[in-house]
Amino acid sequence: MSAKYIFVTGGVVSSLGKGLAAASIGCLLEARGIKVNLMKFDPYLNVDPGTMSPFQHGEVFVTDDGAETDLDLGHYERFTHAKLTRDNNLTTGRIYEQIITKERRGDYLGKTVQVIPHVTNEIKNAMRKVAADCEVAIVEIGGTVGDIESLPFLEAIRQMRQELGRENTCFAHMTLIPWIAAAQELKTKPTQHSVKEMLSIGIQPDILLCRSDRAVPREMRSKIAAFCNVEEKAVIIARDVPSIYEVPLNLAEQNVDTLALNYLRIDSKAPDLTKWQDIVQRAYNPQDVVSIAIVGKYVEYEDSYKSLKESLVHGALSHNLKLQVTWIEAEGLEAHNYPEQLAGFDGILVPGGFGKRGIEGMLNAIRYARENTIPYFGICLGMQTACIEYARNVCGLTGANSGEFDPATPHRIIYKLRELTGVEEMGGTMRLGAWACVLEPDSLAHKAYGTSEISERHRHRYEFNREYEAVLTGAGLRLTGTTPDSTYVEIVEIPGHPFFLGCQFHPEFKSKPLEPHPLFRDFVGASYKHRQENATSLIHEGHTPHEAVPAAKA
């Protein structure tokens, strides 16, 4: 039997959390034993988000097959077990690219190529491809109803209902119920107008997911149901919650999954949400706190590090701890007082990034962590800068750098990937996707993973220069992870340090709340151990420890 579809759309304003809602619905259906797949359509003309600024678009999420995708796919993978590929995220740019390629090749046999039917057919074919191996496909349409660029996608899903019938399609529309401070009341008019806009293009929502920062009275839900032509039980209040992992439970309480399955004529067992309940219980009742400093280049926009932040949360939850993150702009650590800015943290993390801005600040943070035995975790750029810092300050290689930041450096510790020499195009030209890595026995990485070979996702243009391997390892650095053919260095560590590990890959892309990534789990564990030791030593010296344990409890 062919798959059925749940289409998730948004109105009123953007950034209401459609991706989180789609992922949560997927989570609830999986808990009932239903096989799901999820898909995101983005209306912008970029072929993919790979060349977009993190300040514009947030994080670029990488799949196993090397696709650079929207950060909502990160939510899909964290909340479900769907195996996502480049087919699960399509932009207007990619669809038009495919159509123009076909037109130039003559596939349309001289016909006039138009938005309807050619663009909409391409969109529908993409949906069918993703739905080929699942029972329910959840399709999220990016943007907001009323945006001109979203129209082809909305028209395509309208046609899908016409072709497949009501029992095979369900429309979930996310809107906003704003609180007007001046009037001291909630307003339903934006939701009414949003649904009216959907109706004008031929789509009647079945379920309304209404975002609100407070409780919505029953009579207001009745009013929305009456004006928007939906059942009252289908007006779902998507309340703001402190932890995103409560969202599936919140939707389950309002029977969103039961509603959707009734509309789709699907029978299933009752959902088992005990693991999610346990996660939320731990999130709201931590035993203690752990304080992590993230020294990055894009910290002004937290979505730039979405998966990273969530992976740290997963690591903290595995130890029943509350994560306290401090975002530190790398450029701000280039001043002489950088030790003062870094004092008091239990662990320091330097994430990925591109370009030379803030590099000297990152090097200062790494030196501080190394010299003061503070747990350090470097990811991608964080590994490369750790190697540069070690070369400069331990090996005495003055001016050591990366070819990316200083092409004239006398010591190119990091240089461009050999296969990219002469390649100047930006889009999709990096080392992307899942690659195997062999771990050295008795290393931090080997102890964390509990296996000698792993597969992790990459997104980088530069690599460690093995011409400097003998110099750095001779001074104490240990290369504990390489590709099976020994071409690329994947992991570096400093033996004897409580936790000092840099990895060239992005482990944050594979962490889930119910399955925390081993490296994040062990980094948070080491950071908390450092916190406890630091508190003990301060008490022995007669000082009050930074954020004493009793005060930190939630």
UniProtKB/TrEMBL annotation:
Residues 1-266 are annotated as: Amidoligase domain. Gene3D superfamilies: 3.40.50.880, P-loop containing nucleotide triphosphate hydrolases (3.40.50.300). ATP binds at residues 15-20, 72, 239-241. It comes from the Bacteria. GO terms for biological process: 'de novo' CTP biosynthetic process; pyrimidine nucleobase biosynthetic process. GO terms for molecular function: ATP binding; CTP synthase activity; glutaminase activity; identical protein binding; metal ion binding. UTP binds at residues 14, 187-192, 223. Mg(2+) binds at residues 72, 140. CTP binds at residues 14, 147-149, 187-192, 223. Pathway: Pyrimidine metabolism; CTP biosynthesis via de novo pathway; CTP from UDP: step 2/2. Residues 303-524 form the Glutamine amidotransferase domain. The active site is at residues 380, 506, 508. GO terms for cellular component: cytoophidium; cytosol. Residues 4-265 form the CTP synthase N-terminal domain. Its EC number is 6.3.4.2. L-glutamine binds at residues 353, 381-384, 404, 461. Belongs to the CTP synthase family. Catalyzes the ATP-dependent amination of UTP to CTP with either L-glutamine or ammonia as the source of nitrogen. Regulates intracellular CTP levels through interactions with the four ribonucleotide triphosphates. HAMAP family: PyrG. CTPSs have evolved a hybrid strategy for distinguishing between UTP and CTP. The overlapping regions of the product feedback inhibitory and substrate sites recognize a common feature in both compounds, the triphosphate moiety. To differentiate isosteric substrate and product pyrimidine rings, an additional pocket far from the expected kinase/ligase catalytic site, specifically recognizes the cytosine and ribose portions of the product inhibitor. This is CTP synthase. It comes from Granulicella tundricola (strain ATCC BAA-1859 / DSM 23138 / MP5ACTX9). The gene is pyrG.
